[in-house]
Amino acid sequence: MKKRDAVLSLLEPGRRPDYTPAAFFLHFDPAYHRGQAAVDKHLEFFRYTGMDLLKIQYEHKFPPLPEIRRPEDWGKIPCYGLEFYREPLQIVKGLVQAAKREALVIQTLYSPFMCAGHTVGPQVLLDHIRQAPDQVKRGMQVITDSLMLFVKECVRLGVDGFYASTQGGESGRFGDPALFDACIRPYDLALMEEINRACIFNILHVCDYHLPYGDLTPFVDYPGHAVNVSLELTGGKISAQEVASRFGRPYMGGLERKGVIAAGSTREVQEAVEDVLRTAPERFILGADCTVPDETSWDNLKIAIETAHAFRH
């Protein structure tokens, strides 16, 4: 219960946990994407590194539909029911039962825009949004309805929250910001408002995996108990303090996913973590700006987490 309390205490202004919580995430080998093997690998990683919350990786993307060639084809998008999510839900059930007493259990949730990209391919998605946004919106609603089934079942199984990942507002995605407001934002918010209503701890992740952001303004009023974004914007670096202040909630991050944490020595990792913590906001979770590379040493992650736990201002 100490890990749960440390993270949840960040939601109470004026209260500080006994130590700085920390967590990092990576994708496991495909051999550990299904069944008990996935449950066991998540638990092994969580316990070896000593992190303060358990995030369940999501490895069950929407299948590609090459028949969606024209904007009017978006009416053919199927609404996948709970049977489609059977395998990831088995992992959720196993990890909630195994770890909820130790730490918050958080499920990864890809946004409808991201799932649409998995379905039709990123370039087709962007082209169709630009050409016929009203046609795309028909499919986006169906995708959102399907994801809502998954969300509600995860809640029923006992997850504490979601790591809600969103994309679409990056620099260069759309020349007209109204397209983001029409085809992405409403569907993000439908899911995020539901999880904020139902769960005690959700992390808003503004994902820059493909492209950087020039402006975080479109996401500032998105729901979420904590926010995880990169500090590298196209206009220059911002501070963790700035992000926490602007979003008005705890910030998770501080380390660049492909930087020292991925390839540094023990001492380099320790020094990097200490540098981050010296200027971190009061309500803070040490982490990376996104999922770290798969080959990242678990020992590096363990060292970073131990350094955060031991650090005293």
H and E order? HHEHEHHHEHHEEEEHEHHEH
Number of strands: 9
Low-pLDDT parts are: none
Task: Give the mean pLDDT.
Answer: 95
Please give the radius of gyration in angstroms: 19 Å
Give the CA-CA distance, first to last residue. 24 Å
Largest beta-sheet characterization:
5 strands, parallel
Number of structural domains: 1
- What coarse outline follows from CA principal-axis ratios? globular
Widest β-sheet, arrangement of strands? 1-2-3-4-5
Structure notes:
The two termini are 24 Å apart. The chain has 313 residues and is of the alpha/beta class. Strand 1, helix 3 (86-99) and strand 2 (104-110) form a beta-alpha-beta unit. The longest helix is centred in the middle third of the chain and has 25 residues, at 133-157. The model has no long low-confidence stretch (mean pLDDT 95). The chain has helices spanning 2-8, 35-49, 86-99, 112-120, 122-131, 133-157, 177-183, 185-198, 240-247, 260-263, 266-278, 298-310, and strands spanning 53-56, 104-110, 161-166, 203-206, 226-229, 232-233, 236-237, 251-255, 284-288. The strands form three sheets. A five-stranded parallel sheet has the order 1-2-3-4-5. It has a two-stranded antiparallel ribbon with strand order 6-7. The protein has a single domain, classed as TIM Barrel (Alpha-Beta Barrel).
